[in-house]
C-alpha cells in the first residue's frame, strides 16, 4: 500500500478493556487481508475508567453515558479519526443521544450484527449480554428492521450473565463454570427455536468460542471490527487522488 495513500483513521470509543483490546487486535491482524502484509488503518483508542460508565449505567443515567462517549469522540476527532466505533454493546443504549451531537460518524454494532445475520439467512436469534443491554431495544430494533426475531434471556439468566460479565469477564477471568452456564443458556435458546446466538457483550467471545456453542455465534466484537475495515476500504481515496 503506497505510503501517500494510507487507509482512513479509525477511532475506538472504548468502555471495558478486554472487549476493546479484542476489537483493536482484530483491526490490526485482519487488516492485512484488505490492505496488504502488516498493514491496517491507523487506529486510535480513548476510554474513561469503566467505573465512570458503571456509575451512570447502574443509575440509569444514559445522558451521562452519552456525555462520556461524546467526550471520547471529541478527543478522537481532534487527533484525526475519520469515523468511530464503540466495541461495547451496553453503552449503545445511549447512541440516540450521541449521534445528533457527534463530531464524526459511527458504525453501530447491532446493525453490523443484524446485517451479518440476514446475510447468513438466520431467522430467530438468541441474545446474550449485560442486563441493561438485553432489556433494551438496541438489538430488537435493528434485528426487526431486517425481519429477524429476537429471544432474550429469562430474568434469572440475565442476572447470572450480568454477574459473569462484570465480575469475571471484564477482568479477563474465563472460568469453565461460566462457559458451562452460557452453553446451558444457548441450548435453551436452541430448544426455543433460535438458529443462532448473538454474543452481545464484547467480552463474551473470549469465553465462548464458536466450536463451544450449541448454536452458530454472531460475534459482535469481531463483526464490528470487520465492518470498520470494510468501511475504511470503501471510503479510502483512489491511489491517484493526490494527482487528480
Overall mean pLDDT stands at 94
Between the first and last Cα atoms, what is the distance in angstroms? Answer: 18 Å
How many H/I helices?
12
Biggest pleated-sheet summary: 4 strands, parallel
The first-level CATH class name of the largest domain? Alpha Beta
Spans where pLDDT lies below 50 across 5 or more residues: 240-244
How much strand content do the residues show?
A: 5-15%
Oligomer state of the chains in this structure: single chain
CATH fold group of the largest domain: Rossmann fold
Specify the CATH architecture of the largest domain: 3-Layer(aba) Sandwich
Cα radius of gyration in angstroms: 18 Å
Total separate domains? 2
Please identify the structural class as seen in this structure.
alpha/beta
Q: What percentage of residues falls in helices of 4 or more residues?
A: 40-55%
User: Spatial order of the strands in the main sheet?
Assistant: 5-4-6-7
Encode the helix/strand succession as letters.
EHHEHHEHHEHHEHHEHEH
Question: Shape, please?
Answer: globular
Give me the count of strands: 7
Describe what is shown at a glance.
The chain is of the alpha/beta class and 244 residues long. The protein is built from 12 helices and 7 strands.
Structural write-up:
The protein has 244 residues and is α/β, with parallel strands linked by helices. The chain has 2 domains: 119 residues, Rossmann fold, CATH 3.40.50; 112 residues, Rossmann fold, CATH 3.40.50. 49% of the residues lie in helices and 11% in strands. The chain has 12 helices and 7 strands. The protein has a 4-stranded parallel beta sheet with strand order 5-4-6-7, sandwiched between helices. Strands 2-1-3 form a 3-stranded parallel beta sheet, sandwiched between helices. Helix 11 links the parallel strand 6 and strand 7. Helix 6 runs parallel beside helix 8 and helix 6 packs across helix 12. It is globular, with a radius of gyration of 18 Å. It starts with 9 loop residues before the first strand and ends in a 9-residue tail after the last helix. The C terminus is likely disordered.
Amino acid at each position: 500500500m503506497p505510503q501517500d495513500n494510507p487507509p482512513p483513521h479509525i477511532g475506538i470509543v472504548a468502555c471495558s478493556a478486554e472487549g476493546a483490546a479484542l476489537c483493536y487486535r482484530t483491526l490490526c491482524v485482519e487488516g492485512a487481508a484488505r490492505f496488504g502484509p502488516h498493514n491496517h488503518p491507523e487506529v486510535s483508542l480513548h476510554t474513561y475508567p469503566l467505573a465512570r460508565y458503571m456509575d451512570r449505567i447502574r443509575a440509569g443515567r444514559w445522558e451521562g453515558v452519552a456525555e462520556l462517549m461524546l467526550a471520547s469522540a471529541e478527543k478522537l476527532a481532534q487527533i484525526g479519526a475519520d469515523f468511530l466505533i464503540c466495541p461495547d454493546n451496553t453503552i449503545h443504549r445511549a447512541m440516540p443521544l450521541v449521534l445528533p451531537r457527534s463530531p464524526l460518524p459511527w458504525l453501530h454494532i447491532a446493525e453490523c450484527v443484524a446485517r451479518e445475520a440476514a446475510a447468513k439467512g438466520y431467522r430467530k436469534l438468541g441474545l446474550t449480554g449485560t442486563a441493561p443491554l438485553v432489556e433494551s431495544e438496541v438489538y430488537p430494533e435493528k434485528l426487526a428492521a431486517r425481519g429477524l426475531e429476537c429471544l432474550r434471556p429469562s430474568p434469572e439468566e440475565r442476572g447470572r450473565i450480568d454477574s459473569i460479565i462484570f465480575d469475571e469477564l471484564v477482568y479477563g477471568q474465563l472460568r469453565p463454570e461460566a462457559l458451562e452456564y452460557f452453553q446451558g443458556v444457548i441450548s435453551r435458546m436452541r430448544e426455543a427455536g433460535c438458529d443462532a446466538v448473538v454474543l452481545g457483550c464484547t467480552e463474551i467471545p473470549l469465553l465462548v468460542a464458536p466450536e463451544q456453542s450449541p448454536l452458530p455465534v454472531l460475534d459482535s466484537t469481531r463483526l464490528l471490527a470487520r465492518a470498520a475495515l470494510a468501511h475504511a476500504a470503501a471510503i479510502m481515496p483512489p491511489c491517484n487522488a493526490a494527482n487528480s
